[in-house]
Amino acid sequence: MASDSMFLLAGVSLLSAMQMGYLARRVGLSRIAHKVMPPSVTGPPEFERTFRAHQNCVECYPVFLVTLWTCGVFFSEVAAAGGGLMYIIARQIYFNGYVKSNKKRLPGFYLTITVFVILSLLGLTGILCGILHKYFNIHL
Amino acid sequence: MASDSMFLLAGVSLLSAMQMGYLARRVGLSRIAHKVMPPSVTGPPEFERTFRAHQNCVECYPVFLVTLWTCGVFFSEVAAAGGGLMYIIARQIYFNGYVKSNKKRLPGFYLTITVFVILSLLGLTGILCGILHKYFNIHL
Amino acid sequence: MASDSMFLLAGVSLLSAMQMGYLARRVGLSRIAHKVMPPSVTGPPEFERTFRAHQNCVECYPVFLVTLWTCGVFFSEVAAAGGGLMYIIARQIYFNGYVKSNKKRLPGFYLTITVFVILSLLGLTGILCGILHKYFNIHL
C-alpha cells in the first residue's frame, strides 16, 4: 500500500471528471441539434438515447471513483490507474455506441462491467488483507 | 483522528458501491419483466417505482460518501463505519419498499435521513474541533 | 502539497453535501406545492424546472468533488476551498434562477463552468508537476 502522493489515481480521476463534462456537453449539443429545450428530456429517439447514455454515466461515476481508489490505495496504484483508463475508454465506446443505436451500447456496457468487477475484486483483496493484518495480526 | 489506513471506511464504501451495482441490476431485471426497453424510462407503475427508487439512491450516493468519510476521518472510523452499514440497510429497505408501493418507501427513507443527520453532525463536530485546534490553537 | 489534515476541504465538502440535501428538500416541497406525487417526475413547468435544476446538481456533484480535492491536495487547499465556496454559491444562483425561468438558469450555469475550469486547471497543474517530480525527477 503506497502512502505517498497518488498522482496517477488523481490524474485518472481528473481525466474522468473532464470526460463527464465532455459527455454533458454532448447532451447539450444534442439538445440544440434536435431542438429539445430544457427542462424537457423527451424528443427524437437519438436525443433520448444520448440523454440516457449520459444519465447512465452519471449513475456509474461515483461507483467508479470508489472502486478506482479502493483498488489504488489498498491493492496497486498502477493496476487501478490502468483500470481507470480502461473505464474511460469503455464509457466513451458505450456513449458513442448508444447515440447510434440501442444495440450498439452493449460492447461498451460489458467492458464497463468487466472493469468494475476487476477493480472491485482487487480492492476487496487489498482491504481484506489489510483488515486481517491490522485487526487479527494475520499476514498473507 | 486516525492517520493510518482506513480499512473499515474503504470496506463500507466498496460494499455500498456493490449495492449500487446490485440496485442497477434490479432496474435492468424490472425492464425485462415489464418489457420496458432502453432508453424509455416510463412504463407500468411497478417499473416506474423501481426506476425512481434507484434514481433516488443515485442522488443520495455521493452525499453518503462525503458524510461517511468526513465522519470517519475527523470524528471516529468505527462510528462512521457503523453509520455506513446502517445506510446500506436503510437504502435496501427503501428500495424494496418503494418497489412494492409508494407508501412503503417511507420507513427506509426516514432511516436514510437519520443516518445522514448523524454522520453529518459527527463529521461537523470533528471538523470544527480540528479548525479551532489548527487555526486558533483552541483545544476542546 | 499539504499532507496534514484537510479541514477546509472537508468542511467545504460537508457544506456542499448539506446543500445537496437542501436542494432535494426543495424538490420535495415543489412536489407538495404542485401536487406531483412520486414516482411521477412530470407536472407543471415550475415543478419540472425545479426537478431538472436538482438533477443537474446531482450530475455535477461528483465532478465537483473530484476537481475540489485534486486542486486542494495537489495545488493549494485555500484556493480549492475558495473555489468550492464559489461553486456552492453558483449552484444556489443556478437553482433559484432555474426555478423562476429557463433563462434565469444561465448566470449560475456559467459561474459553475468557470469554477470547474479553474479548479481543473489548478489541479492539473499540481498533478503534472508532481508526476514530473516523482517519475522524471524534474523540478519546476
TrEMBL record, chains A, B, C:
Keywords per UniProt: Endoplasmic reticulum, Leukotriene biosynthesis, Membrane, Signal, Transmembrane, Transmembrane helix
Superkingdom assignment: Eukaryota
Tagged with keyword Signal: yes
GO process annotations (BP): leukotriene biosynthetic process
Subcellular location: Endoplasmic reticulum membrane
GO cellular component terms listed in the entry, alphabetical order: endoplasmic reticulum membrane; nuclear envelope
Residue intervals passing through the bilayer: 63-88, 109-133
Residues annotated as signal peptide: 1-17
Keyword Protein transport applies: no
GO molecular function: enzyme activator activity; glutathione peroxidase activity; glutathione transferase activity; leukotriene-C4 synthase activity
Topology versus the membrane: Multi-pass membrane protein
Protein name: Microsomal glutathione S-transferase 2
